[in-house]
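Kindly inspect both lines:
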Amino acid sequence: MNGLIGLGGVLSLLLVVGTMIGLTDRTRFSWRWLLVAALLVAVNDALLTGFYGLLPNVIGGAWNWQGKLLALAATLAIAGSPAFGWRRSGLTLVQAPGSLKAALPVAAIYCAFFVFIAVAFPGRPSTGEDIAFQLTMPGLEEEPFYRGVLLLALCQAFTGTKRFLGVDWSWGAVLSCVMFGLAHAFSFSQGAFSFDPMTMALTALPSFIAVWLRLRTGSLLLPILLHNFGNAFSLVV
């Protein structure tokens, strides 16, 4: 129940804020695509949580392998549909011509950020499963969703763009970063909503770099690799 209430809070924020933004530029706003984005978030959350505990965990383990794999399977199915498409969702190894020259220095900044975090906030001793999970699942599941199908849906909802740092930013790109931060920092438990500003900053801010890389290169390859590096680095140092 707590998970459903938390999801309801996130979706309410997305729909209310998204509608308010959209009404400022109605000719380039699609309410239908905003609803699609909300539906994507709901489906992703349900699969990650095993339909909020109703689905038995047949894989086991200390980490949520089953939820991540189910969510990834759904994301890949959505990306393969005609309304989305693999290439449009960033699921391609092909990098936009000339993009790596600009992207690699930004990738280095992304890595440096997580090296700093690992040094500043050392974690507990890690197990083999900890390392295996963080080297694979976070980037493989979250990037195709947040920087793939959800980003595409939100960019279809808000088609107006501004050129900044070599890429075309839309409100959809910004909201995708906000949703990624809220997924980590916003929850409902013990009868109240909670929000962790530090967690929001440590997740939403790097996601702007990941979105820039996705838009600049046209591919999720670098965001996936960097995401898993960021998650796993603190466990192996």
Summary: The chain has a mean pLDDT of 93. The radius of gyration is 18 Å.
